[in-house]
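Please think about what follows:
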Amino acid sequence: MPAQATPQPDPTGAATPEPREASANTIDPAEVARFDAMAEDWWNPNGPFRPLHQLNPLRIAYIRDQIAARLGTAGTGGGGERMRPLKGLRLLDVGCGGGLICEPMARLGASVVGIDAAARNIAAAARHAQAMGLAIDYRHQPVETLATGSERFDVILALEILEHVADGEAFLAACASLLVPGGLLVAATLNRTARSFAYAIVGAEYLLRWLPRGTHDWRRFIRPHELARSLRGAGLTLETLDGAHYDPLAGRWSLSRDLGVNYMAIATRPAGA
C-alpha cells in the first residue's frame, strides 16, 4: 500500500524550507520505496501514473522541439530520417521510472540510457522495452554513481524527479558533470505556491485521487528562482522556463506562461566548460 500523506503545512503562511545539509547521496529511501511499490503500474494509463500518461504528449513534443532548436537536429536527412530527428544524440533520463519518456526518445532516434534508484522500476521498464522491440540501456543506478565514470551525454532529462531527491543541488551538479559542453538539460518540476498545494496535493491526491496520497510533499516543491540558483551553482546556464497548464474539460496539457504549478526548464552547459 502507498504510504499515507504526511501533514502538509499551510502554504499561504509557510516559510521557505530550511536548507538541507549537502550530501553526495541524492537518494531518499522513502521516495524510492514509494515508487518501487507502484512499479508494475507504470504502463497502466488508468493507474496511479495516469497524470504522466496525460502529460506525456506535451513533454515529448517539448523535449523534441527544444533539442531540435538548440542542437540543430530538426529536419536532417530525408525519408524515414525525418521521423528520427534525435538520431546521433546520446540521451540520459534520470529517474526514468517505467520508461514512459525513454521509449518515445528512442523512437525519435536517440541512443537512450535510463537510470532509476528503484530496482523494480528498472525491471518493469526493461520488460516493456523488450516487448516493444526497443534497445534502451536501463540501469539500476543513482546519478551520482554514474557521474564518477567517463560517460557523457548530449541531453539529460530530469522530469518530475527534483521534488523527490534528498539533495537537489548535489543532484543537479551530478547531472551537469555528465553533460558534454554545449549539452542540454531538460527539467520539469512543481512550483511551491498555494495554487500548487491546492491542485497537486488537495486536488490530485485527496479529491480526484489521480495520485496515491503521499506521492508529493509540498515542502519539496521548487520555486523557479530556487531552481535557477541551483542550476547556476552547478555551472549551467538557464535558457528558458515554460509552464504546463492542464485543461480538465479537454483532458489535455498545453504550454503556458504561467509557472504557478507545473513548469519546465531548459539549461545548457557552456560550450567552453
About this structure: Confidence is low (pLDDT under 50) at residues 1-23, 75-79. Residues 129 and 136 are 7 Å apart (CA to CA). Residues 50-71 form the longest helix (22 residues). The two ends are 46 Å apart (CA to CA).
